[in-house]
Write a structure and sequence with these properties.
With 291 residues, the chain is an all-alpha fold. 78% of the residues lie in helices and 0% in strands. The chain has two domains: 41 residues; 234 residues, Orthogonal Bundle (MetI-like fold). It is found in: Cell membrane.
């Protein structure tokens, strides 16, 4: 290899690394270093002494209750989003809908999957709150009082429905490429062998799609578990989930122990980290199947 070629390759490598340097610096400053700070801080007292007390204190009833409510909301919204999102994705890919329906739904999903925080909370309060539009229409036109059934938008069920607004579109966006990857030859081969539509889905399609389905559901779980803006704007402190408890600790309203707050954040990192690792593993398996 000539000197000129070697010099060109070296310059190309330098340019490539310069291109990703801003991202690496950003990730280091706002993701990696803060995470390491939280992890190490969870094992120290405010005086700087090493301790496991902060980890042990995570198992107190109030904190365990917050974790349990967060897990329940995340599981419910991820399963609901996965089921509804799967059928929506199936309809636009394999259901024979017009192309404009597919493009419109995917565009809406791209917007709705990022619609969260205060605007989403306000939208649901204006729709399903005690004086919301749907609540008033049901009461005045159909004589049905939604809140007499025990429904409350500020409850576990209300927060789950609100989360599903961005969980369903996210499921559609992630699962649509997986359904697009289903080869027509697989369906034709199963029909030649005499398989019914149900047998094709039970024995061929679903086993292939299963890693994508499970992986995306885990991703939805992690997405809901770490959400705070929507929950705080919707319920305030009436629903004791982990992100709200951590937010209150950061403001100095509860716990009065910054290192216990670090331990609380460490627990969230562990749970969401496990979910994302399993998602990556399942996603890798799904891509290998579809090659």
């Amino acid at each position: 290899m000539s000197t000129a070629t070697t010099s060109f390759i070296d310059r190309r490598i330098v340019v490539d690394w310069l291109g990703i340097a801003p991202f690496m610096i950003f990730a280091l400053m706002f993701l990696i270093i803060p995470t390491l700070y939280l992890v190490t801080g969870a094992f120290f007292t405010p005086d700087g002494e090493f301790t496991f007390k902060n980890i042990v204190d995570l198992f107190t009833p109030s904190i365990m209750s917050a974790y349990w409510i967060s897990i329940r909301v995340s599981v419910a919204s991820s399963i609901g989003g996965a089921v509804i999102g799967f059928f929506l994705a199936w309809a636009i890919v394999l259901g024979g809908v017009p192309p404009w329906v597919r493009s419109g739904l995917l565009t809406f999903s791209g917007v709705a999957s990022n619609f969260a925080g205060v605007p989403l909370a306000f939208a649901f309060l204006a729709t399903l709150g005690r004086t919301g539009l749907v609540t008033i229409l049901l009461r005045d036109w159909l004589g049905f009082n939604l809140y007499s059934t025990g429904f409350n938008i500020l409850s576990f069920f209300g927060l789950t429905i609100t989360y599903m607004f961005f969980q369903i579109p996210l499921m559609v966006l992630i699962l649509t490429p997986a359904l697009d990857g289903m080869k027509r030859e697989w369906r034709e081969a199963s029909e030649i062998l005499g398989a019914s539509t149900w047998q094709y889905w039970r024995m061929v399609a679903l086993p292939i799609l299963w890693p994508s389905l499970m992986g995306t559901t885990l991703l939805l779980f992690a997405n809901a578990f770490g959400a705070i803006a929507t929950a705080y704007a919707l319920t305030g402190s009436s629903l004791n989930i982990v992100p709200i408890l951590l937010y209150a600790q950061i403001r100095g309203d509860v716990l009065h122990n910054a290192n216990l707050g670090y331990a609380l954040a460490l627990g969230m990192i562990v749970i969401t980290g496990i979910s994302n690792i399993l998602y990556i593993w399942l996603r890798t398996r799904a891509e290998r199947w579809q090659k």
